[in-house]
């Protein structure tokens, strides 16, 4: 794995990890793997490793404001972040990659496909791509109050790690390590999220302003939707499934492959997520 920083906009460089295909691979496809809000590239490590093991190449990326990438004051709206990815793809010389986004990243890759048709071989939305907070909350203020992140800066690393391990006992170690990579670590044993609280709210406002449902008809690339159902259905399950079905129906070329598990299914079950994406190549969906 090779790590580098790639300029994508004025004053903005994105940190990427490059996972080249094995030399023995004859026709590798590159997968660009995009994280969600307040996450980072390392959550995709398990998926990238599996893709490599099956002869494919991968690029995992920290989006602006996140992880090791530049942290400008703004902007953080979905179209700007999508354009960052388009620039990244071109700067790296990638030819028709599969581009996968999780959660907020799913919204970003839908916008990318609408703004840059033909750039990707296919789009994968991992439990995201259909989020419209403006349809779920009566106002931006209500959305901000409900979805503002906890204030974790200053917490001790041991406390945070203990919580993560306790909440996800079935996750592989790569998923735990990837989640811990959401935080900057300090010599006194405390942490702080790489994405600051204030910037988190700015990104969230960008999601509020974004309407993926208004972009579906413009997406010409095939889209693989990977929604995640919780093991125990909750009061929001029906709404989530309805949103996925609306996306499937509105997208010109789409298929749905549901999972049961955690929202970060790519960290929880990386081999299965990678295999489903490769299957979409093998069966010709991502031609």
Structure description:
The chain has 287 residues and is an alpha/beta fold. It has a single domain, classed as Alpha/Beta hydrolase fold, catalytic domain (Rossmann fold, 3-Layer(aba) Sandwich), CATH 3.40.50. It is 38% helix and 18% strand. The chain contains 11 helices and 12 strands. The chain has helices at residues 45-53, 78-91, 104-115, 133-136, 140-147, 157-167, 173-180, 197-209, 237-250, 265-268, 270-282; strands at residues 2-9, 12-19, 30-34, 57-61, 98-102, 122-126, 183-185, 191-193, 223-226, 228-229, 254-256, 259-260. An 8-stranded mixed beta sheet has the order 1-2-4-3-5-6-9-11, sandwiched between helices. A two-stranded antiparallel sheet has the order 7-8. A two-stranded parallel sheet has the order 10-12. Strand 7 and strand 8 form a beta hairpin. Helix 5 crosses helix 8 (197-209). The longest helix is centred in the first third of the chain and has 14 residues, at 78-91. The chain is globular. 43% of the residues are buried. The mean pLDDT is 97.
Task: Briefly say what this structure is.
The chain has 287 residues and is of the alpha/beta class.
């Amino acid at each position: 794995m090779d790590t580098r920083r790639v300029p994508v906009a004025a004053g903005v460089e994105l940190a990427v990890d490059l996972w080249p295909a094995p030399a023995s691979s004859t026709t590798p496809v590159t997968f660009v793997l995009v994280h969600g809000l307040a996450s980072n590239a390392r959550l995709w490590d398990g998926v990238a490793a599996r893709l490599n093991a099956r002869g494919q190449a991968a690029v995992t990326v920290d989006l602006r404001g996140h992880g090791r990438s530049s942290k400008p004051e703004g902007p953080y709206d979905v179209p700007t972040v999508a354009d960052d990815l388009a620039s990244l793809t071109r700067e790296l010389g990638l030819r028709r990659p599969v581009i996968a986004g999780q959660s907020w990243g799913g919204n970003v890759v839908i916008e990318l496909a609408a703004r840059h048709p033909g750039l990707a071989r296919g789009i994968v939305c991992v439990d995201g791509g259909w989020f419209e907070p403006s349809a779920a909350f009566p106002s931006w203020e209500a959305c901000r109050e409900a979805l503002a992140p906890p204030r974790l800066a200053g917490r001790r690393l041991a406390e945070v790690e203990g919580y993560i391990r306790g909440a996800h006992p079935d996750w592989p170690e790569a998923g735990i390590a990837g989640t811990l990579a959401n935080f900057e670590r300090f010599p006194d044993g405390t942490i702080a999220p790489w994405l600051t609280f204030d910037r988190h709210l700015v990104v969230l406002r960008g999601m509020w302003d974004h309407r993926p449902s208004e972009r579906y008809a413009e997406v010409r690339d095939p889209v693989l939707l990977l929604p995640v159902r919780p093991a125990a259905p909750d009061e929001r399950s029906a709404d989530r499934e309805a949103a996925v079905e609306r996306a499937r129906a509105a997208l010109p070329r789409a298929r749905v492959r549901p999972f049961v598990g955690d929202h970060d299914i790519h960290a929880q079950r990386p081999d299965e997520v990678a295999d489903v994406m490769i299957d979409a190549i093998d069966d010709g969906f991502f031609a």
